[in-house]
Amino acid sequence: MYLNDLPDHMSPAVQARYKLERIIVQSLVNELIDDHDCLLILDDGEGSVGVATDDGPFLLSYMMETDVDRIEAYPHGGSVLLVYGNGCDVIADYSMNLEPMIAKTLALAAAFERAVEAHSKAG
């Protein structure tokens, strides 16, 4: 995950989408760890961070490096599928038992989606 400056080769539209997705992903990780005491395992499809951790910054440093990440949440079970390039819909799927645990992040993503829609209509 790019934490600060984004590469110059990214267009302004891609940079904006990346920043939006990064905010949502950071919210998701923080909500699961800080609010619900979850241990998270990251599967990026290319070699997981195969240890359960509650170290959000460590986990975030490995995220958004591939097109897809899956986070497994313990001890509650369930996972969240993140598909990058979808903007506000970066959370592509999640286990229903996690829905109440990620409610703040889902509300944040929905608010971003409404803002993007309003901006495009005003365009």
Overview of this structure, please?
Strand 3 and strand 4 form a beta hairpin. Strands 2-1-3-4-5 form a five-stranded antiparallel sheet, with helices on one face. With about 120 residues, it is of the alpha+beta class. The chain has three helices and five strands; from the N terminus they run H-E-E-H-E-E-E-H. It has one domain. It is about 40% helix and about 20% strand. The mean pLDDT is about 90. The longest helix is centred in the N-terminal third of the chain and has 24 residues. It is globular, with a radius of gyration of 14 Å. The relative contact order is 0.17.
What number is the mean pLDDT?
91
- Put simply, the count of helices is 3
Largest sheet: 5 strands, antiparallel
Structural class: alpha+beta
N-to-C SSE string, H for helix and E for strand? HEEHEEEH
As residue ranges, the low-confidence spans are none
The N- and C-terminal alpha carbons lie at a distance of: 30 Å
User: What portion of residues belong to β-strands?
Assistant: 15-25%
Gross geometry: globular
Q: Strands across the major sheet, in which order?
A: 2-1-3-4-5
Helix content: 40-55%
Number of domains: 1
Report Rg: 14 Å
List strands and helices in order, with pairings:
Layout (H helix, E strand, L loop, with lengths): L11 H24 L3 E5 L5 E5 L2 H7 L5 E7 L4 E5 L7 E4 L8 H20 L1
Helix pairs in contact: 1-3
Summarize the structure.
The chain is of the alpha+beta class and 123 residues long. 41% of the residues lie in helices and 21% in strands. It has a 5-stranded antiparallel beta sheet, covered by helices on one side.
